[in-house]
Design a protein that fits this description.
Glutaredoxin, alpha+beta, 2 domains
Length: 167
Amino acid sequence: MSGLSRQRFGVLVLILVAIVFALGCSGGEETPSTVAPVTTTASGGSGTNGGELSEDVPLTPTDGSPAEYVDAFGSRPIVVLFYVPGNADDTSVFDTVERLKSSFDRYEFLVYDYKDPDAYGTLSQLLEASYPPYLVLIDGAGYPRKVFHGYVDEGTLNQSLVNLGRL
């Protein structure tokens, strides 16, 4: 290999290393949670859009909504969790929600085992719940502000609840 070829090869290797390094660092600050931002949908949050709710349309109770949701709607922030008992991520999120309840006593916390549809009625459809754990934060006026699909750590959820109270 000539000197010029070695030099080109060295530059190529450096470029490849830089690309790999850049790709590896781009996601390094993510938490283990998957946060789905609340997005505007054409259906206004009342269709089957894979868990995307409209921040512009309140989640007004429907026939079949649980009484505790109807009572809290529009008067205080609401935290709704759908979970699967025994699943590691679901159990972790459930435990986190249970720990945080006492710090947010003016919020309504509604926790539902997905296996008990009689408890939550049509709420899962209204909130377009997808795979559990599925957590929706609704402000005091009834508008969805944050949706978490899957695991969310305690720090992230705590800050999201603080932010919810500021709206």
